[in-house]
Automatic annotation (TrEMBL):
One Pfam family hit: ADH_N
Keyword Hydrolase: no
Taxonomic lineage of the native organism: Bacteria, Pseudomonadati, Pseudomonadota, Alphaproteobacteria, Hyphomicrobiales
Recorded superkingdom: Bacteria
Protein name, UniProt field: NADPH:quinone oxidoreductase family protein
Keyword Oxidoreductase: yes
Length: 322
């Protein structure tokens, strides 16, 4: 079979579309013929050696896959050949055929396409965990989402609305601001003079929950726009700059800075994660959330697609097709 292979850590251009051994159906392994493969920001960091995890090389990157089960190991209990499933793992999904432990595989109900299923895993899963468990967002609160046209950003906007919040979406261009608006943002802003704009949008009260996957100067503006008792969620640093936080702000403004490490959450609290996914799927089937799929590209195009994702040139979810 073909897969995207990282022979060693290095530039995205070094990734190879190459032959790779097919997974075997042994033990608890579920073998999935891929129909859609999700592209995520951490995938690009992983292959460059810039992510928290550094697997031995060579390896196949990729966290998300959805498709049809073609074989199962002798220890698999709840999945059978022919099931439509989605799987989330730390790597291995940029391939035509993927082997995944049964514990990482969930059956897909009718009505969910493979591309949307991939988006609901990492992107929507991160935002859901951030807003529900970490921020404990309440109906009627003011939520500000930076990067509101990206995958996790549009997810945060939609999930925030599903939880009853009033949502401010922040995006860099009129085109991206339109995406945030279509996702459900009540107010849409750009990054210019963001602190003053947020003060006006909140009537001077400040933001109850700030959602920041961007970092850099945007974090600085948002941290100065938090309201009393607020929760500022640290999701990631798509800008490439990890900000330095003046802790006196948290003291005098009475808000909390809360880290969101979704991948570790799924491993530490698998039961809670499973409950979260059930709720997300229920919202999807009820029409409360709907992933924005920007485009679908051949698996061989993974290096150029990842380059665009890391350069913040994408909006919504990008899918690779084997």
């Amino acid at each position: 079979m073909k897969a995207i292979v990282a022979r060693d850590y290095g530039p995205l251009e070094n990734l190879e579309y190459a032959d790779w051994p097919e997974p075997e159906a042994k033990g608890s392994t579920v073998v999935i013929r891929a129909e859609a493969i999700g592209v995520n920001f951490p995938d690009g960091l992983l292959v460059q050696g810039l992510y928290q995890m550094k697997p031995p090389t060579p390896f196949v990157p990729g966290m998300e896959v959805a498709g049809t089960v073609t074989a199962v190991g002798e220890d698999v209990k709840g999945i059978k050949v022919g099931d439509r499933v989605a799987s989330l793992s730390s790597m291995g999904s940029y391939a035509q055929i993927v082997g995944a432990p049964e514990a990482t595989v969930m059956k897909l109900p009718d009505g969910i396409g493979s591309a949307d299923a991939c988006a609901l895993l990492c992107g929507y899963g991160t935002s859901h965990y951030a807003l529900k468990q970490r921020a404990q967002l309440k109906a009627g609160e003011m939520l500000c989402v930076l990067g509101a046209a990206g995958l996790t950003g549009t997810a945060a906007v939609q999930i925030g609305k599903a939880m009853g919040a009033r949502v401010i979406g922040v995006a860099s261009s009129p085109e991206k601001q339109a995406i945030a608006k279509r996702a459900g943002a009540d107010v849409v802003l750009g990054y210019e003079n963001l602190k003053d704009a947020l003060k006006e949008a909140t009537g001077g009260k400040g933001v109850d929950v700030g959602y920041d996957p961007v970092g850099g100067e945007s974090f600085d503006a948002l941290s100065r726009s938090m309201g009393w008792g607020g929760r500022l969620l640290v999701i990631g640093f798509a800008s490439g700059t990890i900000p330095k936080f003046p802790v006196n702000l948290a003291l005098v403004k009475g808000f909390s800075v809360v880290g969101v490490f979704w991948g570790d959450f799924t491993r530490r609290e698998p039961t809670v994660y499973a409950d979260n996914m059930k709720e997300l799927i229920g919202w999807y089937l009820a029409g409360k959330v709907k992933p924005v799929i920007e485009g679908e590209y051949p698996l061989a195009d993974a290096p150029s697609v990842l380059k665009r994702v890391l350069g913040r040139g994408s909006a919504g979810k990008i899918i690779l097709k084997p």
